[in-house]
């Protein structure tokens, strides 16, 4: 009880069913989310043919005590409905906004409705591109997960000017403390 859950899929087909009567199949990249609140039976999974790849993430967020017994809430978001912003200096780099604020007050918000303030962004960066942004106000921790490809640096980590190699290969997780205003800027290369 009392969790907000997003199933964000990058490849394959997603499927959701729950005791509220929601039954959805969605293409990727796409997302289904729910706030389980006072309780709901639910199941998520792939709707793929044998041999097809299913790739994605399921993210669970604890909600504040006062919202643990709220009514359940649910949504499915296709790629066409998700806010996607062009970023960086190179053509093809983009940010898919999953939850919370994007970068500017006029930018669209992500569709994952959470009880706690959260900013979730999927960056797809072109080779040799860079991008910088500020962590949204009210947030004090940032986690960066490299799930495909590599970053040459993120806030200075991983950069090696002599060998031009990257230590931020896929599977790397970086925890950043944004509690200090001087450390709220994220720089990706």
Key features?
189 residues, mainly beta, four-stranded antiparallel beta sheet, 17 strands
Q: What's the short version?
A:
The chain contains no helices and 17 strands. With 189 residues, the chain is mostly beta strands.
SS-based class: mainly beta
- Morphology: globular
**N- and C-termini, Cα separation:** 39 Å
| Major beta sheet summary | 4 strands, antiparallel
User: What order do the strands of the largest sheet run in, or round the barrel if closed?
Assistant: 6-1-4-7
Low-confidence stretches: none
Q: What is the radius of gyration computed over CA atoms, rounded to a whole number of angstroms?
A: 18 Å
Helix content: under 10%
Tally of DSSP helical segments: 0
List the helices and strands in order. EEEEEEEEEEEEEEEEE
Q: How many runs of DSSP E, i.e. beta strands? A: 17
Query: For the residues shown, what is the average pLDDT?
Result: 85
Q: Proportion of β residues? A: 35-45%
What does it look like?
It is a single chain. With 189 residues, the chain is mainly beta. 0% of the residues lie in helices and 44% in strands. The chain is built from no helices and 17 strands. Strand 8 (84-86) and strand 9 (94-100) form a beta hairpin. It starts with a strand and ends with a strand.
Write the layout of secondary structure elements.
Blueprint lengths: L2 E9 L1 E6 L4 E5 L2 E6 L6 E5 L8 E8 L10 E5 L6 E3 L7 E7 L9 E2 L8 E5 L6 E4 L6 E5 L4 E2 L16 E2 L3 E5 L7 E4 L1
Antiparallel strand pairs: 1-4, 1-6, 2-3, 2-5, 4-7, 8-9, 9-10, 9-11, 12-17, 13-16, 14-15
């Amino acid at each position: 009880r009392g969790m907000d859950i997003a199933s964000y899929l990058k490849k394959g087909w997603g499927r959701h069913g729950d005791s509220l009567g929601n039954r959805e199949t969605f293409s990727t990249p796409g997302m289904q989310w729910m706030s389980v609140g006072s309780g709901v039976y639910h199941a998520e999974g792939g709707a793929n043919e044998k041999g097809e790849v299913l790739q994605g993430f399921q993210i669970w967020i604890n909600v504040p005590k006062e919202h643990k017994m709220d009514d359940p809430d649910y949504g499915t978001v296709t790629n066409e409905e998700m806010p996607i912003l062009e970023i960086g200096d190179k053509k093809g780099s983009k940010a898919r906004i999953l939850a919370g604020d994007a970068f500017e007050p006029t930018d669209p918000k992500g569709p994952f409705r959470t009880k706690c303030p959260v900013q979730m962004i999927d960056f797809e960066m072109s080779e040799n591109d860079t991008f910088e942004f500020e962590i949204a106000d009210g947030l004090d921790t940032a986690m960066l997960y490299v799930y495909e490809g590599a970053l040459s640096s993120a806030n200075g980590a991983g950069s090696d000017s002599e060998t031009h190699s990257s230590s931020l290969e896929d599977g790397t997780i970086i925890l950043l403390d944004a509690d200090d205003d001087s450390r709220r800027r994220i720089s990706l290369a």
